[in-house]
Amino acid sequence: MDLLSSVLSSLKVESTSISRWTMSAPWGVDVNNFNLGYCLSVVSGQCWVQIRDSSSTKSPATIQLQTGDSVIAPRGANLAILSGPDSETILLDALPWHGDTFQGLSSSIQPSSAMQVNWGGGGPETQLLGVAFTFQNHQNNFLLSSFPEYFILKQRESNFLQLIHPAIQFFIDDNSPGYFAVATQFSELIIMGSLRAYILSNEISSVGVLKGMKNKSVAKVLTAIHQAPQHNWTLPELAVEANISRSVLSKRFPQCVGVPPIDYLNRWRIHLAAEKLINSKASLDFIIKSLGFETDRTFRRLFKQYKELSPSQYRKKFTRV
């Protein structure tokens, strides 16, 4: 498996809600304190995205979206979606939604239909498709934190979404049983495809694993770690993988990723351990040995350091089996 696939595969969608917005100008929606990931795609018409920053005294920045463009907030973001730069807004929860009553997103809630809204002042129409979602193992997820708070995908960067939209439109109008199962698969395709498109089409400036993937030698080290996390890698071994000296690796890797190589190895191992704890019935001893930890004590110390819970507490809180 290539490095990008490894990173994206580790971000598993846990719960999801699909929505269709039919809006007529003037209109404005304030997506405030919405602590879920979301993706909004313009199917027809146009709209504006306004970035709300309570810590700034400057006028909010606005970005115009045309048909085929999308805004994605992997961890949620304080944005407003508007028919025009100066449109007044109402809160997202105040919209006259119909469909299943929205009860939030968690693995225990499985909606039986999509959410829909038809609202606005009766002017030119814009249609949006929305996906709200949460990631499994999202707390203290160092991979997820590598993505920006939000990003814009233009139509030319996300042609795959144009292929998916007609299928989703058909699916929203189909009231047959099985909605949740199919919605989850559609949503995961949209989310992973959008994250992939962002990585492939943008220069990454923020320190993190995504920036490391853009550096040839650092990417080789990341690939080695992802392909064999159970191996007790040493700095000299990783330098050989990258075909650079230990001193260069020691400097370059933290500059790109934010932490030293062995620290990253431990973070990746703990991430995998957390997945195994909530997705399998494997014993803790088996998980520890399968990921190459030399002692139980070392594993427990690192797990508590990165996840802020003991392994047993984490399994009890987040288990799905």
From TrEMBL:
The keyword Transcription applies. Residues 219-317 form the HTH araC/xylS-type domain. SUPFAM superfamilies: Homeodomain-like (SSF46689). It comes from the Bacteria. GO terms for molecular function: DNA-binding transcription factor activity; sequence-specific DNA binding. Keywords: DNA-binding, Transcription, Transcription regulation. This is AraC family transcriptional regulator.
